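Weekly modeling sync, notes
Attendees: S.R. (lead), two postdocs, one rotation student

Agenda item 3: backlog of single-chain predictions. S.R. asked that every request posted to the team notebook include the full sequence so nobody has to chase files. The rotation student volunteered to paste the first one in as an example of the format we agreed on. Action items at the bottom.

Example entry:
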Amino acid sequence: MAQRRRSGIGERWRRWARRVVERRGHERETAVLILKCAVAATLALGVGTLLMDTQQIGFAPFSALLVVRPSVYGSVLQSGRYVAAVVAGALIAGVGGLTVGPELWIFALLVLFALVLGQAAVFGSQGSQIPVVAAFALAGGTAASPGDLGSLLAMVMVGAGAAVVTNTVLAPAIRFRDAENAVLDFADGLCQLSHEMAEGLGRGNDGLADLDHWARVADGFDDTARNARAAVAKQEERARLNPRRALGGRGPQGDPDAYRAWISALGRSSRHLQSVVRTLRYATDPGGRFPAPEDAFLREFARLLAGAADAFRTVRDAEEPERSSVSADLRACLEEGERGVERTRERISADRDRRPVYSALLTDVDRLFEELQEGHENSARDRG
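Predicted structure, as returned to the notebook:
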């Protein structure tokens, strides 16, 4: 049993190492971050040892490990906040250590004050370092010696500087392609759902058995939109302060604002699909105010959803977020979709009992096509 467990752990490590070598992804980013931490901590310890002989030397690699980040901008931001927090903590400790001395009541009072100060938004996640440094300096006797406090701050500066230098030398590649793929995957998901709904409604009322499944998938697009925005923000942060932008060759392709415009358009489109599912649920409720939709209308409505699926597929295949002008295929899909909606509106005018339900469904699909057109217009405006 123990042998099998060791074999299983070894196999997982081999798979992890293989993914690091063979393709980009979370595993490779984790490996690079581990390497950066090791380099930054070693550099901080080496530089700190050369600069001075002090018992506070441990703060140099400790500080480096705390502020290494995947991006240069993130490392610079966290270094600044960390240094500010440590300085604040050292000053608080110095106030007590250099005046009153190592008294228990002054320790409690100053640590309490440091904890409150650490909640200030300006320090971000590094605010917790204020009470840590204050407590360490007071309890360890560092606060009673201006020289020791100065050495502590010097080692913190060395560690933060080593982290920033390491992040700058090992700056990450700027890949807006990852952000674009997040947008295209969003469009692909909407395409698949629209296609499934079109196939189901093509069978008339018999296809409505999948309503619960459609609702779950449609509601999941809220998370898809958040993840896509996070992917764009991540790549945008990689580009900030990145020295690779100043090097020769082609710069990174992509426009974060254009991607956000498309994510917003696709997000609104997903909400229209959610509304379609809710309306169908309401219309098929036995206790509802309106009679269930007729099979003939559902089959005609299915063709409109198939047109929506074609439009989403074109956004993906034509890589619309990268285009400065709308593709001919997407323009044709949108125009045909809007004409189909108008033709269907004309046909439902005679059915007064079901007209409110039919009108609501058609309005959602019509607005879906409008959202895609607006997505292109907003994207082009952001590029311009």
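Discussion: group reviewed the output briefly. DSSP finds 14 helices and no strands in the chain.
Action items: rotation student to repeat for the remaining queue; S.R. to check formatting next week.
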